[in-house]
Design a protein that fits this description.
Elements lengths: L1 H23 L10 H38 L16 H63 L4 H26 L2 H6 L1 H16 L2 E6 L8 H22 L3 E9 L2 E8 L11 H12 L3 E7 L3 E9 L6
Parallel strand pairs: 1-2
Antiparallel strand pairs: 2-3, 3-5, 4-5
Length: about 325
């Protein structure tokens, strides 16, 4: 009922002012109505309507702000809240909406964590199968082709050697896919070595120039945090290769006050006004998983810059 009384009060103020003017003003209405009297009454009506509209706009402005936020809020961009001023029905509505966003963001973070954990487990399983099953089978085929080519005569030997080369290239591709699915170097040698290997492999397969810089005083990070940084860099490089039409890429990992910042920038065409695809949404979900902040800036003239700031203090450090 708070909103009802708010609107009722605003209208009561306008009607009260109009009644006071009628009582105190030296204006009477004759029969038939004189033109000057009609003009005065119509003018008074217009003034009342304008005053009522102005007061309602001021009184219901918080609801307009709430409506705009409800249409634009994104749970992958946490922290969007409306300030609460005073008491009453509108303030209570905004306070309830902010509390609802708190619950939804917490639930989204928990569900994202479960989904990402399941996704990484599935990646590891597929990587093991590629390495152990497919890789070993292709290695056996490669050895058999070599044995057959050593015993064959020309021109069959040439054809077998060609098949052997195709099998070797396919085996290398299977191993590369397994490394992308499960970055063993990240678990064995750490984040810097994993990013170095990732950018070197990227430069080899795309032909792009990659410049990298890693601060020497990086703090120790949790395994999940290192994995998020690696996956964001991996997805960012994949987007550059697919869409950016760039010639140069820069990757840096720096330690600032209370945060580790991963920055990936290219000199491509930018993403323009296109909607965020599954890749960027995935990066935002990973950032949410470790309480990080993901910022993406794009310009057709200067390319795209992806920045991920991960706090090094608190439960995620």
């Amino acid at each position: 009922m708070f909103l009802f009384w708010r609107i009722f009060g605003l209208n009561a103020v306008v009607l009260g002012m109009a009644t006071a003017l009628l009582l105190l003003a030296p204006v009477t209405v004759s029969v038939p109505v004189v033109l000057t009297e009609a003009v005065i009454l119509v003018s008074g009506l217009v003034v009342m309507l304008v005053a009522n509209a102005a007061l309602l706009r001021i009184g219901l402005a918080p609801l307009d702000r709430l409506t705009r936020l409800m249409t634009t809020v994104d749970l992958l961009r946490p922290g969007q809240r409306l300030p609460v001023h005073g008491q009453g029905g509108v303030a209570e509505l905004i306070r309830t909406f902010n509390a609802m966003l708190d619950r939804l963001e917490a639930e989204r973070a928990a569900s994202s964590a479960r989904a990402l954990s399941a996704q990484e487990a599935e990646r590891r399983r597929i990587a093991r199968e590629l390495h152990d099953e497919v890789g070993q089978s292709m290695t056996a085929v490669l050895l058999e082709l070599k044995r057959a080519s050593d015993q064959a005569d020309d021109p069959l030997r040439g054809e077998l050697q060609q098949a052997q080369e195709i099998t070797r290239l396919s085996l290398d591709e299977v191993r590369r896919l397994a490394r992308r699915l499960r970055p063993g170097v990240l678990e064995d040698l750490g984040l810097v070595s994993a990013l170095t290997s990732l950018t070197a492999d990227f430069a080899t397969h795309t032909g792009l120039r990659v410049r990298r810089h890693f601060d020497p005083d990086l703090p120790p990070l949790a395994p999940q945090t290192e994995l998020v940084l690696y996956r964001v860099a991996q997805e960012g490089l994949t987007n550059v290769a697919r869409h950016a039409e760039a010639e140069r890429v820069e990757l840096s990992l720096r330690h600032t006050d209370g945060a580790v910042v991963l920055r990936l920038a290219d000199d491509g065409r930018g993403i323009g006004i296109a909607c965020e695809g599954a890749g960027i949404r995935g990066m935002r979900e990973r950032a949410l998983f470790v309480g990080a902040t993901l910022d993406i800036r794009s310009d057709p003239a200067s390319g795209t810059e992806v920045s991920l700031s991960v706090p090094t203090t608190g439960r995620h450090a």
